Prior knowledge:
Layout: H1 5-10, E1 18-21, E2 25-29, E3 37-43, H2 56-73, E4 80-83, H3 87-90, E5 99-103
Antiparallel strand pairs: 1-2, 2-3, 3-5, 4-5
Guanosine-5'-monophosphate binds at residues 5, 16, 28-32, 40, 85, 91-94.
Amino acid sequence: MNDCIFCKIIKKEINADIVKDETDWMCFQDINPKAPVHLLIIPKTHYDNLHSVNDDLIIVKLMNGVKTIVKELGLEKKGYRVIVNTGDDGGQTVSHLHLHILAKRPLGWPPG
Ligand code: 5GP
Ligand code: ZN
């Protein structure tokens, strides 16, 4: 997708603070963090959202990516939250599937 900001990050056309760069996915810092740890995990293939995914294995890889990152950052003990905002009501602003990882502060419930 030519005009997708996350595809541009994957192609290194725009900068991001990259935490991990794997074959099928990457993880980078959210530009506008909502918690002391706020990371995004994205597939390297462009999918608008969860419902556009035609490769179920990538969903497994993304979730395993979460586990890898969480372990590497030692977030398991205190806890963290994974969020997939989807569509307008879900608050999705970037139409490239992404998982938020939020940690290192108590997170309220329900979300606003
Ligand atoms: P959404 O609202 O779609 O669930 O989340 C999109 C996230 O992408 C937001 O938290 C926003 O701060 C982040 N974001 C938007 N543009 C950029 C960017 O250019 N670089 C980075 N690193 N994050 C971005
Ligand atoms: Zn994209």
